Amino acid sequence: MKTKTIITIATTLLSVSTLAVALEEAPSVKGTDAFYMGISAGTSYGRDVCDGLLTCDDSDTGFKVYGGYQFTPVWGVEAFYTDLGEFTGSSLVSVYPQFLSVSANASASGMGAVATASWPIGDSFALFSKLGFLYWSVESSASGGGYAVSIDDDGFGLALGLGARYSFTDNFGVRAGWDWYTVGDDSTTGESDVDLFSAGIFVSF
């Protein structure tokens, strides 16, 4: 985990979120003061998964399902499950007197919760930020030279994001955004920052 990066991003989000206090008197936004749920899909990127590998595919299809409650046009909470896909790569390992080709892959998923702060623009459109935690699960494996090994681990990481939503009616809308998660452990599966860029639909009720 890049501690300085995390602190900088988290501090920026928290600082910007304080500006939302001034919006508490904003006009009512469609879909607020209500429960909501949705699904989004897109592309995930593992920022550090290619370190030390000769070949690597650090992107895959990812998705998330979520549900939450918008207390006011500004403040809300949200719980989610996300599947960040699988990342693969290969490298050469020196095993005297030869080099062996080793292939590796890792998949990540998790569930978590975030607090949300929104910036309404009119009665249908809003920008939002999120900050909370992810309980991640990582499954990794490597094979080569007739041998195979696998390591699975789980733990807590940071979850944050930025996005925008548009409500067509009081009960239906679309949402797009960027989510950033820290997953894995340096001592077991390896640690990585994973970005998820996704878009999808939500319903309010």
Number of domains: 1
Helix percentage range: under 10%
The secondary-structure class comes to mainly beta
Mean pLDDT value: 85
InterPro entries: OMP/PagP_B-barrel (IPR011250), OmpA-like_TM_dom (IPR000498)
Keywords: Membrane, Signal, Transmembrane
Pfam families: OmpA_membrane
Domain Outer membrane protein OmpA-like transmembrane: 32-203
Give a verbal description of the structure.
The chain is mainly beta and 205 residues long. It has one domain: Beta Barrel (Porin). The chain has one helix and nine strands; from the N terminus they run αβββββββββ. The chain has one helix at 3-17, and strands at 34-46, 55-57, 59-70, 75-95, 98-121, 125-144, 147-167, 172-185, 190-204. It has an eight-stranded antiparallel barrel with strand order 1-3-4-5-6-7-8-9. Strand 5 (98-121) and strand 6 form a beta hairpin. The longest helix has 15 residues, at 3-17. The chain starts with a helix and ends with a strand. The relative contact order is 0.22.
Question: Features of this protein?
Answer:
OmpA-like transmembrane domain-containing protein; 7% helix; membrane; 1 helix; single chain; OmpA-like_TM_dom; transmembrane; Porin
